[in-house]
Amino acid sequence: MLASRSGRARRDLVGTLVGMPSLTLSGPRRPALAQMLEYAFRPETQVQRNIVRYGHAHWMKGLLGPILATASPEHAKRVFAADPDTFETFAAVSLKGVFGPRAVIVTHGPEHKRQRKLLTPPLHGPRLRAFGEQMREVAVEHVSRLRTGQRFLAHELTTEFTLDVILRTVFGVSASSELRAILLGMLEGFSPLAVFMPQIQRPWFPPWRRFLAARAAFEAALDRLIAERRRTKDDARSDVLSLLLAVRYDDGSAMDDDEIHQQLLTMLIAGHETTAITLAWVLDYALRRPAVLARLEGEARSASDAEAMAKLPFTGAVIDETMRIAPIVTDVPRVTRMPFEIEPGFVLEKGTPIIVLIEGIHRDPTIYPDPSTFRPERFLEKKFSPTEFLPFGGGHRRCLGAAFSEHEGRIFLATLLSRVELETVSPTPSKRVRRNVTMGPDDGVPLRVKRVLV
Ligand code: HEM
Fold first, then answer.
1. Which of 194, 228, 263, 291 is the most buried if burial means most Cβ atoms within 10 Å?
2. pTM for this predicted structure
3. Which of 392, 398, 408, 435 best tests ligand 1's pocket when mutated (most atoms within 8 Å of CB)?
4. Does 266 contact ligand 1 (Cβ within 6 A)?
5. Residue whose CB lies within 8 A of the most ligand 1 atoms, among 260, 321, 329, 399, for a mutation test
6. Of 174-183, 320-329, 333-342, minimum mean pLDDT range
7. Would the CB of 262 count as within 6 Å of ligand 1?
């Protein structure tokens, strides 16, 4: 799939291409602010319209200049397969202010590679399987509080659940720990605007001042926890914090406390709301489709332990179909550090922002026939490639918590649906709105407990 040959070629935007052969790219003419606002709040509409008018690859006008937006799996493949040194972090300045300069979500090049080598094992393989039982226990704690007839918001339940899972598995503390209140304070005080606009990361902006105070409280609490872990030294501990205290870089050095703060803060912010929203969406989609719900419930009731729950195929397919149709993150952003050939003979110059449109690829009818229909079976019938199904991004920056989140999601749903029967309260499906960097349900997905089974 190539960039559009049709549409009106834009001289000013096309000018940022180097050595461009016969291909031209065009894009909407509307002012940058209008385009960015629409992309932030109505991405589906805008992405589909731009693809129809300007082709799978087109230029959007960003506030700081043109952005190459592409919904081509071939382009995604080249971006994901490129040498990591090809790109720098998108919006690094803003991310640095929030997470710190050494957070894995901020760094690039050799430092990023070195960090991922240490951060990957605690969230994968045997370590992840060991978290399964803890995830199930946390799910049981939350689900067993539900009562017949009770109304609640799915998003509130899933948020409480994912927060407590992170507390247990990443920080190694219980829900009654002082850290919980501190984390909640920090998450509540966090202004999503600050991720997009480094200009407001200033003491005169009250939400930013509050965030800094909350982050300082988080760091102090984490320091106390680290000191206690060092004092008590228990090799049996499997939480991510204990593992990070024990691991060593290739040169034999340990991860220092300051870096541990930044990596754990990243896991908390990147890993908490994302999974919570996905699970709330799953419930909204599944509870409106009796056949899907019946099959989910049947599977849930067939699994007796966390390991079996984490392997449930249809439950996994429902989560995947939910992330396809309502991706939590709309695109995978990169910025070129050097000229980059996005397709043969088509070179982007250094400093060009690229966004791979998850939104666009997930709705491509040549990949997903009848893309607006929620049909989980498609994920059982076919294995989609990493550039066709990319809710977790891809390449050297692919989400570090993807496997963790999939594991956690299946265990939560199986625990919930084997213990209670639920129904939706609202006659219409939730609307997709921007909550943060993420896209979530506007009303939190109101539900009612029809019957408690266990
Ligand atoms: C449904 C849940 C989740 C979704 C949809 C999601 C999505 C994403 C996406 C799209 C990226 C950017 C990838 C790229 O640039 O190629 C990302 C990065 C990241 N995610 Fe997730 N995520 C989820 C859950 C989690 C969890 C549970 C954790 C941790 C426990 C986590 C930790 C991270 C980290 C550390 C990064 C930065 C990776 C890097 O820059 O090298 N995420 N995530």
1. 263
2. 0.92
3. 392
4. yes
5. 399
6. 174-183
7. no
Residue nearest to atom 18 of ligand 1 (CA): 399
**272, 164 contact by CB (below 8 A):** no
Nearest to 268 by CA among 175, 177, 394, 171: 171
Residue (of 436, 409, 428, 391) closest to 445 by Cα position: 428
- 236-252 pLDDT tens trace: 888 999 999 999 999 99
Q: How many residues does the chain have?
A: 454
- In angstroms, rounded to a whole number, what is the distance separating the alpha carbons of residues 364 and 427? 29
**pLDDT for 41-98, tens place per residue?**
889 899 999 999 999 999 999 888 899 999 999 999 999 999 999 999 988 888 899 9
Nearest to 175 by CA among 187, 164, 166: 164
**Residue 24's pLDDT is what?**
59
Closest CA to 271 of 228, 329, 319, 210: 329
Query: What is the model's pLDDT at position 75?
Result: 96
The per-residue b/e assignment along 236-258, b for 16 or more CB within 10 angstroms, e otherwise, is eeebbbbbbbeeeeeeeeebeee
User: Domains in the chain and their CATH numbers?
Assistant: 1-92+330-361 (3.30.43.20)
Extract the tokens encoding 249.
């870089």
